[in-house]
Amino acid sequence: MIRKIVIGVVLAVIVNHVALLIYSMGFHKTIYKHQPGPCRYVTGLADMGSEDITVTSTGLAFISSGELSRQDMSIDPARLPPHIKGRIYLFDFNNPEKDAVELDLNGDFERKHFYPHGISIYEDSDLGELRIFAVNHHISGKDRIEIFKYDEKKRSLNHLKTVMGKTIYSVNDVVAVGPESFYYTNDKYFVNKWGRVFEAMTRVAWGTVGFYDNGKDSIVATGLCFANGINISPDMRHVYVSTTFGGEVFVYERKGDNSLKEIKQIKLYSGLDNIEVDMHTGDLWLGCHPVLHTLTEHMSNISNPGGSQVLRLRLGETVTQSSNVDITEVFVDDGSIINSQTVASYYEGKLLIGTLFGKTAFCEVKHA
Q1: Alpha carbon distance 106, 103 (integer Å)
Q2: pTM for the model
Q3: Pairwise CA distance, residues 139 & 121, whole Å
Q4: Distance between CA atoms of residues 314 and 295, nearest Å
Q5: Is the Cβ–Cβ distance between 145 and 137 less than 8 Å?
Q6: Is 90 exceeded by the pLDDT of residue 31?
Q7: Which of 29, 101, 231, 234 is the most buried (most CB within 10 A)?
Q8: Gyration radius of the chain's alpha carbons
Q9: Can you list the pairs that 249-252 forms with residues at least 24 positions away whose Cβ atoms lie under 8 Å?
Q10: Do 48 and 87 meet the contact criterion of CB atoms below 8 Å apart?
Q11: Mean pLDDT, residues 49-72
Q12: What is the DSSP string of 3-71?
């Protein structure tokens, strides 16, 4: 009798998990397309995606392209070496009619093994310089953060430093908080293929947030179901982290020792990717995968369309667990225009939408 009860409970747990997994993939969802105004494709970029886009206070957007996808799911061979090349482009929001420009990457680092994923900028007003931090999925499988200095006259990036560490192992995104200090997300615990597949299928919350400064790296937040994008508020007091499988934005209070205290979770019922922050208003702009099963289908075959969604979040001046959040869906597409969007970067009424493997879009935000 006890054996039958145990078997029944186990089967019930398995059935419940499978049902939740299928539900999270969005098979029940329908996408109704809309956009905030006129949109067009950005020219000047190779057709290798624009996984992350981050913009300076003056409207210069830096775009990462040529991400080396990890082997935890089926990947279209056309998006693996030797068919891809890591690049960083520059797009000027102040002159949006001009092409994006590929930046030269100079310095003593392994250029041929540079495959950028998440990126961040650090504007140092005291030194009058701009630094770019880029997650690099090195061909060896050992993730690292590359730090560059932007040369405005030569339109190039000069490599300054490569950062590796014990807790820098499955990095998805990075946000700079100093000339050589940053927070970063590890989307999963395992780095091998089958371990990552296990995490994806079981939806265990083993993603983390780490912090690096002065040669030391450490984990400062845990319990995240595929930790993805990370960013920081304009006053540097709050850190935001998105989860793809959890569909949540976590808001943390940043302490004086750079530890993090969770103060709010925002459930958005979408597959969240990168977070960008409007440094003038503090609004959060999220690139999302509204129907997750179309993302996996697109990754395995880039001819399959993947859904795209842009969400804008307004948190208000005071953030608590009970405080209200204004959520607006600014853009959504079934993949006919934008395939598997990963990021939305906003600047003064204009929007850049980046993708995993496809084209990049520029939209005028007339209504949102």
Answers
A1: 9
A2: 0.94
A3: 24
A4: 27
A5: no
A6: no
A7: 231
A8: 20
A9: 249/275, 249/284, 249/286, 249/313, 250/221, 250/224, 251/315, 251/319, 252/209, 252/221
A10: yes
A11: 91
A12: HHHHHHHHHHHHHHHHHHHHHHTTTT-----B-SS-EEEPPS--SS---EEEE-TTSEEEEEE-----S
Confidence bin at 72 (pLDDT 50/70/90): low
Confidence band of 71 (pLDDT split at 50, 70, 90): low
Tokens representing 330?
Answer: 């600014």
Task: Identify which of 203, 286, 190 has the alpha carbon closest to the alpha carbon of residue 246.
Answer: 203
Which pLDDT band, with edges at 50, 70 and 90, does 73 fall under? low
Q: How far apart are CA 59 and CA 264, in angstroms?
A: 30
Residues 6+ apart with CB under 8 A from 2: none
Q: What is the pLDDT of residue 34?
A: 94
Nearest CA-CA partner of 189 in 219, 144, 231:
219
Distance from C-alpha of 83 to C-alpha of 317, rounded to nearest angstrom: 46
Backbone angles phi, psi at 71, to 5 degrees: -90, 50
Mean pLDDT, the chain, as a whole number? Answer: 92
Is there a contact between 166 and 219 (Cβ–Cβ < 8 Å)?
no
Active site residue 238: no
Question: Does residue 133 contact residue 176 with C-beta atoms inside 8 Å?
Answer: yes
Amino acid residing at 258: N
C-beta of residue 249 within 8 angstroms of C-beta of residue 240: yes
Q: Of 156, 155, 164, nearest to 136 (Cα)?
A: 164
Amino acid 85: pLDDT: 93
CB 223 within 8 A of CB 166: no
Residues 6 or more apart in contact with residue 151 via CB below 8 angstroms: 157, 158
Structure token pair of residue 55: 């913009």
What's at 259, amino acid-wise? S
Percent of the chain with pLDDT over 70: 97
> Please, are residues 86 and 65 in contact by the beta-carbon 8 Å criterion?
yes
The strand order across the sheet containing 284-289 reads 271-277, 284-289, 308-314, 326-333
Of 27-36, 99-108, 225-234, 264-273, the one with minimum mean pLDDT is 27-36
Preceding omega of 290 cis (within 30 degrees of 0)? no
